[in-house]
Amino acid sequence: MPDATRHLTLANGLQLTLRHAPRLKHSAAALRVHAGSHDAPGKWPGLAHFLEHLFFLGTARFPLEDGLMRYVQALGGQVNASTRERTTDFFFEVPPSALAGGLERLCQMLAEPDLGIERQRREREVIHAEFIAWSRNPQAQQQFALLQAVAPGHPLGAFHAGNRYTLALHDPAFQQALHGFHQRFYQGGQLTLSLCGPQPLDELEMLGRQHAAQFSAGARVSQALPPPLAAATLPRVFSHAQLPAGAEQALELLISCLGDSRPGTWLAALRQRGWLQDFKAEALYAYAGQLMWHIDLQLTENASAEEVDALLQGWFGFLQAAAEPLNAEFELLQQSRERSASAIELARRDSAGQPFAGLDSQALQAFRALLAGLPSRVHGHWQLPAGEPLLVADLPAARPQPLPAALQISNLLPSARQYTALYLRWQVPSAARQQLQAVLERALQPLQERCARVAVQLQFNAAGEYWQLRCAGLPAAVLRTVQLALTLLVQPPAGSWLAPSTPPAGLIPIRALLKQLPDAVLGALPLPGAPDTLAQAQLDSLWQQARWHGLAVGFDDTALNALATALQHCPGQASTPGPLPAWANHRWQRVDAHGSEHAVLLFCPLPAAMEAAGRLLAQSLQGPVYQRLRVELQLGYAVFSAFRQVEGVGGLLFGVQSPHTSQAQILDHLLTVLRRGVTVDPAARQALAGQFAEPAMANEELAEWAWQTCLATQAGGLDALRGAILATQQMDLDHLLDYLLDSDSSWLCLANAAAPDGAWLTATE
């Protein structure tokens, strides 16, 4: 059944967009303010971004501990905000019954914020910490340099993030500008509110009208037109001016065409020559008919840049005559993306006026204008790819046959959800597995690119001596993807054996620690030396030694039959999940990571019997950890705490990245919060238990829970977990805290190498 939508203009000028999507389990709200960093006075860089931060610090009606962020987090939802050049977006996703509470808090905090000077002072330090991290991030600096180079004299090339020096809090002129910006733009005429969920349109309309009425009435303010955008002079950076309406949607189609790596396309031509390592195309700016975008290519050392660009211009020329057929497949892609999108993705697209759809006649005109403004020539041999089989809705034909004994079937997710997930996991003892893993990653990359286009998730990763393949999405697409992926894993194409000449970009410290966490949990050690040269025979030998097991979630009987056919070609010998990793006492591990900021990741594994108490403790600690480390101590902008399952091991996870606080101090602050304890809140306990029911859990979240439970070889299901959470008492949390703080408890603490060796251990020595 297609979604039903409705568009209204309220009495205060606010544009209200409603979407009834019966398949959704959650509801979402997205509010777009038509004002951003380029609309703030140039004298105060970062003012719009600073105001976005201030909104989340609570108001008299909803103080911080009952504000939008805490409210959504307590329900296991998502919440965030983003300040762009000419827009600012606020969005959250919660269970349908909580949409009213979230919407009330969102509208109230934006309509009546508390802009007290003391909270401004504290939040400015957080902004400054973000600025330091931004200034030390090579990718961020490369993009900033790019914008400065291609947009001289345009606001696009200016600094807008803000820091301690640009936000002059005690200057009356700054305060006047801050309050004036809020009064001018945070009123009905500048706002678009989108609500999306399984509720009927009338119910969504009632909620929208009730809570959006908190905004004052106003007319749409004419945002100042930007100065002319100079023609881009850097390679693969493109700028356009005076484009017709629909240019952003047109660019989305063009980027989709550029990202198509099937035979006959530009990316396929680069890959065929052995030149392509990675590709990304993205919009840099779009406003008032101006558009700037760029293509970020990672090429091998032997690639000819001149020929790459000549082929690109030939591809541009070919596309000019193929607008209609390109748009026809793009519409199928968009339909697939819409069927797979979450509530928050749908709400955000609606608030931006860009729903998942093919181009209408106006946007097609913009597409032609976009291509007409690009360099083109007759060069290369091109063809439109054949229809994408991953978009075929019918299941692959298959004869009845038994499923492999190594595959477990989960019935947690009804097939009516039209979401399936398959997990395959191999234990690979070979010393060559790291080098062969890189070969397989390169072999899967073109298929992963195809999957990303059609809203299928295909992941291949490694931890310890395990390889894991995960495929999730619509049933027919998953089944066809699995068949293709297994073929590639067994027999990689010839080009996959060539090692890349360019190392991957470094991650910021906290992300580097998170990436290393699965290996650390498994206690993985460096492998002994592997062969210098790799060949198919070594991969064949590896697969003969490998043992596998897996889990299928969301498949009905017909789809399981097709899955059995696909898994006939699964390499390795059938097996069962192995024992969980275990360690005693505290374990410390240093991780090499890019950047000079200090980062700590603390993982506290818990016995299965403590999972319910651990989840309730993690829920109760979110607020205190954030309040102490982020708000009061202002350690940095990256502060989080949660319950996580890693390689089947459940436990509490704390993460902090700070530009100025050492690892030892960070760890001390975390321990201080734990020593203060928490008090059981019956309402929070009830809310947490309510999150563990199939209708309340996102499909992806439910599948991952089933997989982690499979790895843990745990008995019991969601009903048992809900019951255990509801039965958890204060003494259970107190006992758990004592367990965590005991010197004999099991801890895993990861840190980056920003501090001298041993300096960060003094917190507990």
UniProtKB/TrEMBL annotation:
MF (Gene Ontology): hydrolase activity
Domain Coenzyme PQQ synthesis protein F-like C-terminal lobe: 616-706
InterPro entries: Metalloenz_LuxS/M16 (IPR011249), Pept_M16_N (IPR011765), Pept_M16_Zn_BS (IPR001431), Peptidase_M16 (IPR050626), PQQ_synth_PqqF (IPR011844), PqqF-like_C_4 (IPR054734), PqqF_C_3 (IPR054733)
Pathway: Cofactor biosynthesis; pyrroloquinoline quinone biosynthesis
Domain of life of the native organism: Bacteria
Domain Coenzyme PQQ synthesis protein F C-terminal lobe: 420-552
Keyword Metal-binding: yes
Swiss-Prot/TrEMBL cofactor(s): Zn(2+)
Signal peptide: none
Domain named Peptidase M16 N-terminal: residues: 19-156
Keywords: Hydrolase, Metal-binding, Metalloprotease, PQQ biosynthesis, Protease, Zinc
Record has Acetylation as a keyword: no
Gene3D superfamilies reported in the protein's UniProt record: Metalloenzyme, LuxS/M16 peptidase-like (3.30.830.10)
Biological role stated in the UniProt entry: Required for coenzyme pyrroloquinoline quinone (PQQ) biosynthesis. It is thought that this protein is a protease that cleaves peptides bond in a small peptide (gene pqqA), providing the glutamate and tyrosine residues which are necessary for the synthesis of PQQ.
NCBIfam families per record: PQQ_syn_pqqF
Family: Belongs to the peptidase M16 family.
Protein name from the UniProt record: Coenzyme PQQ synthesis protein F
Protein's gene: pqqF
